[in-house]
Specification:
Elements lengths: L7 E2 L2 E2 L5 E10 L5 E10 L2 E9 L8 H12 L6 E7 L4 H5 L23 H12 L6 E6 L5 E9 L4 H10 L3 E4 L7 H7 L4 E7 L6 H17 L16 E3 L1 E6 L4 E5 L6 E2 L4 E6 L6 E5 L4 E7 L3 E2 L4 E7 L14
Parallel strand pairs: 5-6, 5-7, 7-10, 8-9, 9-11
Antiparallel strand pairs: 1-2, 3-4, 4-6, 8-10, 8-17, 12-19, 13-15, 13-18, 14-17, 15-16, 17-19
Bound molecules: zinc ion (ZN).
Zinc ion (ZN) binds next to loops.
Length: about 325
């Protein structure tokens, strides 16, 4: 980890109080156009933590791009303690082609920590680790649901680790999922370097979702206040504790057909509740999709045309806490 007062990214040395967009070179297009990951380095006049904010690791997950843009725009070096490394678009190839993946169909978030001589994705992961992650003390990675899938705003983190749990609580989403680490993910690679990292999920691919973006911006600023990077204004009480969720499962479609949704993301459901009906073309058949257990719907498909086995609803359960209230603002 870099010492806090000296920081050099892509060969550029950046002293405290400096703000600059640095280009990290990651390859080129067929026509030799150079491809770079743009990183805005925002160094406060006072020393402090180094927080990276990364978006569009999956190139079509663009809520994070807008969240990071808004956070960057609000920051002032004179009022910042520490450094923000703002990286709105990591997967620059996918972002420019509206694709989750890289040109070779690899998923960048399964290629960390990467290698110098591997695939394009592996090399990009390695460069991002070297120039951004390994120079940071903390991180927040922004994602959305996949194409045609919606997630309510939620933080995924390893809450067994105290500093990560405190960051997750500070972020302020109503649901925090203690999710296991996926092999090759940025989160796993950061964890191995003992860098506390949150993954924010909200909305769906290729959409800007205003409530989700606002939750992301507020959460990001709240984490910066928690880390002492921004001053807390007034004596605002900490919000209610989030619900820490240990388990979640997908409810799959029992049949192909058209789906009429009866319960939406954010709703609390009890075991046996009818979540949706699968309909035929002529009104002769209505097949129920029931909740196999109680919990809160944290995500689901947006497509009403379903095949047997399609993932319809993502439901989170918690042993200790009853979900007493539904998250009305996202219904
Ligand atoms: Zn993603």
């Amino acid at each position: 980890m870099a010492t806090k007062s000296s920081l050099s990214i892509a060969g550029e040395s950046l002293p405290l109080g400096r703000r600059k967009i640095v280009q990290v070179e990651v390859g080129n297009l067929y026509d030799f156009t150079e491809m770079n990951i743009p990183v805005e380095v925002i160094r406060g006049t006072q020393d402090g933590p180094i927080l990276f904010l990364s978006g569009a690791l999956h190139g079509d997950e663009i809520n994070g791009v807008e969240i990071i843009r808004r956070v960057s725009k609000r920051l002032r070096v004179k009022k910042l303690r520490g450094t923000v490394l703002a990286v709105p678009v990591v997967n620059v190839f996918g972002f420019n082609t509206r694709s989750r993946y890289l040109p070779d169909r690899r998923d960048l978030n399964r290629c960390f920590p990467g290698t110098t001589k591997g695939s394009l994705a592996s090399q990009m992961a390695r460069v991002f680790m070297k120039e951004v992650v390994s120079k940071s003390t903390h991180g927040i990675d922004f994602h959305t649901g996949a194409l045609h899938r919606y997630n309510i705003p939620q933080v995924r983190a390893c809450i067994d680790e105290a500093r990560t749990k405190a960051m997750a609580k500070a972020f302020g989403t109503q649901v925090v999922i203690n999710s296991s680490l996926r092999d090759g993910s940025l989160r796993e690679a950061a964890r191995k370097k003992k860098i506390p990292i949150l993954l924010f999920e909200g909305g769906e691919a290729l959409r800007f979702d205003e409530p989700v973006i606002k939750a992301g911006v507020q959460g990001c600023l709240a984490v910066m206040k928690h880390l002492g990077m921004l001053e807390k204004v007034g004596k605002k009480q900490d919000g209610a504790d989030p619900v820490f969720v240990k388990n979640s499962f997908w409810v799959r479609s029992p049949h192909g057909g058209s789906m009429r949704v009866l319960k939406k993301p954010g709703e609390v459901v009890a075991e046996g509740d009818c979540l949706a009906l699968i309909l035929d073309l002529f009104g002769k058949s209505e097949i129920r999709v029931d909740a196999p257990a109680s919990g809160i719907i944290i995500g689901g498909t947006r497509l009403p045309l379903v095949n047997r086995g399609d993932a319809l609803f993502h439901i989170a359960t918690s042993e200790n806490v009853d979900f007493a209230e539904q998250l009305d603002e996202f219904l």
